[in-house]
Amino acid sequence: MPIRLTPQMKQRLTRRTMEMLQRSLSYFPELTDAQITIGYTRKHLGSATVIYRKGVVSSLIIRLRVRKVTYQTIGHELTHLIQGLAYGDSSGARSADPQKIPSGEKQCDIWTLARDPLFCDDAPTYLKMPRIMREHWSDYAGLVRDLCLAAIERRHIHRQYIRWLEDEMAKMPRAPGQITPATAQLTLPFAT
Ligand SMILES: [Zn+2]
Questions:
Q1: C-alpha dihedral over 119, 66, 40, 21, to 10 degrees?
Q2: Concatenated DSSP letters for 92-110?
Q3: Given 58, 122, 139, 173, which is the most exposed site by the fewest CB atoms within 10 A?
Q4: Measured between alpha carbons, how far is 111 from 71 in angstroms, rounded to an integer?
Q5: First and final CA of the chain: distance in angstroms?
Q6: Could you say which DSSP state residue 9 is in?
Q7: How many CB atoms lie within 10 A of CB 44?
Q8: How much distance in Å is there from the Cα of 102 to the middle of ligand 1?
Q9: pLDDT tens, residue order, the chain (192 aa)
């Protein structure tokens, strides 16, 4: 899968971030044939853009910070590209296809966490969760990912699946005895 770097990114990209990018991309088979431009941003955690020209995808761009970039952020932006591709798909099947990732930031968080434990190395930005979960994210990551997978399943029968997910997360810290050590379920690929 060809990656193009903007000049700004070329100057800043570290080997570690490049490896993280390539590793992340290997979990996105939908993007196998796409050329992706990687740009740099200092304002946000990241951003993603899908540009169409005459109804055809002309470029896929994600922008990332380099310092302290996480798999969670990379995965989130790549998921936005998938959302963007689905949105522009003029086959007319987009809303009917249950495999498609719906648009929206929370949806992006859910599908990113669900994709692989790799992308659970940091808490998602948009899903609402109790502060304690953000502060002790590694204890909750595996459970939250399981809930995300369950929410995606429920989506077909339960329109309020995001609300259901956030309600379940809100209940979690109040039952600490039931929390299994998520670290046991997760092997996080921390690059040192
Ligand atoms: Zn986003």
A1: -40
A2: S-TTT-TTSPPSSHHHHHH
A3: 58
A4: 13
A5: 25
A6: H
A7: 12
A8: 13
A9: 689 999 999 999 999 999 999 999 999 999 988 899 999 998 878 999 999 888 888 899 999 998 889 999 999 999 999 999 887 665 554 455 667 899 999 999 999 999 999 999 999 999 999 999 999 999 999 999 999 999 999 998 888 999 999 999 999 875 555 555 544 444 455 544
In the block, residue with structure tokens 């969670």: 72
Q: Cα of 108 to ligand 1 centre, how many Å?
A: 7
Cα(156) to ligand 1 centroid in Å equals 23
- 3-5/56-64 β-pairing: unpaired
Dist. CA 154 → ligand 1 center (Å): 22
Residue partners of 169: CB distance under 8 A and separation at least 6: 127, 128, 129, 130, 133, 144, 147
The answer to whether 101 touches 137, Cβ cutoff 8 Å, is no
Structure tokens at 137: 């994210």
- State the distance from the centre of ligand 1 to the C-alpha of 146, rounded, in angstroms: 21
Q: How far apart are CA 154 and CA 137, in angstroms?
A: 24
Residue 177: predicted pLDDT:
53
